[in-house]
Design brief:
The protein is of the alpha/beta class and 338 residues long. Helix content is 43%, strand content 26%.
Length: 338
């Protein structure tokens, strides 16, 4: 079994397995509130999809009817993932019976295409481009006036106050944000021969993700984001608001809805896609927690590399006979700019 250090940047994971997980992981009340807000206007909405990966999160919003008439700008920091977005859309267009039209034009370094389905009243254009969230100001003219900012497993992978500040600059009054967040200590495997060891291992993984700069350099910001949300997000909430004006000067977000989008993978009932996801995450955890740079943090948690390897072998055995289970802790948030 191989380990991919850039787990969230693995194209196979994003294309093949993540769409299955996306179907599990949206809070229905928050999603319904978003759909209600969008239906208040019949105009074609302008959407900014942040950290789009290969586009699976955006596709799920189209499939569940949240987005019907929209102009979407979708960006990611990884050009290899951005290049895959049209390909994944074409695959789903075939599966869903959508019309796919490649515009064959490049706009500011991106590719433009369109998906439509007259039977559903769906017509969506997508402009893809490679960018960091911190430099979106260079595309101010193109992106300003956005009606909805979305992102799955995105905002918690950033310096949130800085990222929100830049996004708010692009948003007019009453524009919406819809974020899907992984939280601190966001997952747990079962079964376990030692709950104490497993709790320590998850604590070690999150501490490495949060505090160790060597690991951020080695594994990328994606790993840091796994721990960042749960520890920082509470400090951004103030009296039902997110990101107050007196902190950024760019306005604030009123929280319209906030709720858990936790999900589980049940033993003996997993799909092949879910098992592949569990295989990758287990390898990722083992690789991080046994890394030479982690020695000091392992000592802090009272763990050894043998503890991590034993945990990993136990999970591989459970994967082999499908007795493995998984719980994921996530949060969805919907806000409106005031």
């Amino acid at each position: 079994m191989t380990r991919d250090n850039k787990f969230y940047q693995n194209v196979a994971y994003l294309n093949k397995w993540k769409p299955v997980l996306d179907e599990k992981s949206r809070n229905p009340e928050v999603l319904s509130k978003l759909q209600l807000e969008l239906r208040k206007s019949d105009k074609v909405i302008k959407v900014l999809e942040c950290g789009a990966g290969t586009g699976s999160g955006l596709i799920s919003l189209i499939k569940n009817g949240t987005l019907t008439q929209a102009h979407v700008s979708a960006f990611d920091i990884d050009p290899n993932l951005v290049a895959e977005i049209p390909n994944l859309f074409q695959e789903h267009a075939l599966l869903e019976g959508w019309d796919y039209h490649n515009e064959n034009s490049i706009k500011n370094g991106g590719k433009i295409f369109r998906v439509s389905d007259t039977s559903r009243g769906m017509d969506i254009s997508v402009n893809t481009f490679t960018n960091s969230v911190y430099t979106l100001g260079s595309r101010q003219e193109e992106l300003e006036g956005v009606d909805l900012v979305t992102g799955q497993a995105f905002i918690e992978h950033t310096k949130m106050d800085q990222a929100l500040d830049g996004l708010l600059r692009l948003m007019p009054k009453d524009a919406l944000v819809y974020f899907h967040l992984n939280c601190d200590g966001w997952f747990q495997y079962s079964p376990s021969s030692s709950h104490e060891r497993d709790e320590k291992l998850m604590g070690l993984f999150n501490d490495l993700a949060m505090n160790n700069q060597k690991f951020k350099d080695q594994f990328g910001a994606t790993i840091g984001g796994m721990a960042f949300c749960g520890r920082v997000l509470p400090y951004l909430f103030h009296d039902g608001r997110l990101n107050p004006e007196n902190e950024t000067g760019q306005g604030e977000l009123e929280i319209l809805a906030f709720g858990p989008s936790d999900w589980v993978i049940t033993p003996y009932q997993q799909s092949d896609e879910e098992l592949k996801f569990l295989e990758y995450t287990a390898a990722q955890i083992n690789g991080v927690c046994t890394h030479p740079n982690a020695e000091d943090m392992r000592n802090k948690w009272g763990l050894t590399t043998d503890d991590a390897h034993t945990w990993y072998e136990e999970k591989l055995l459970a994967l082999g006979n499908k007795s493995i289970g998984f719980t994921c802790v996530q949060k969805d948030i919907l806000g409106k700019k005031k």
